[in-house]
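Box 3.1 A note on notation
Throughout this textbook, protein chains are presented in two layers. The first layer is the amino acid sequence; the second is a token string describing backbone geometry. Keep the layers aligned when reading.
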Amino acid sequence: MGKFSQRPSPTLYSSTSLGVLPRLHKFTLEDYRKYERERDKIFASPSGRAALMAGGMTWRLAQGIVLERLVIKGPSKDVRRIGAVYGTPDVLSILVDDGLHVTAEDIIHGTYFVQTGLGSQTSKVSWWP
């Protein structure tokens, strides 16, 4: 394994997941379609492979969209740039694999921030738990 010029880290998609919505927002079919488009962008990236390996609800949502052969094939070619690092801080003994940033998980689960009406406070709501 070669040395890294910079430690890789999973892609940060958005700090607000699918966005911040007004307090009384009524979800529509268009909201759900937007969610599907954003989710599918992640599934088409190296993070999609990581989603399929994640287990739980994330795995369930990736199943049938992300090809299982991508998991078997091993880490993507972008792993040295956007992978997740596993192991010790010693550069000689780390392992790198495709990673899934918490912001990507939030988008996969359909997470929005909804204003509560109490100053800048928001609550998280999602299509999936």
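The first helix runs from residue 29 to 43. Residues 20-126 form one domain.
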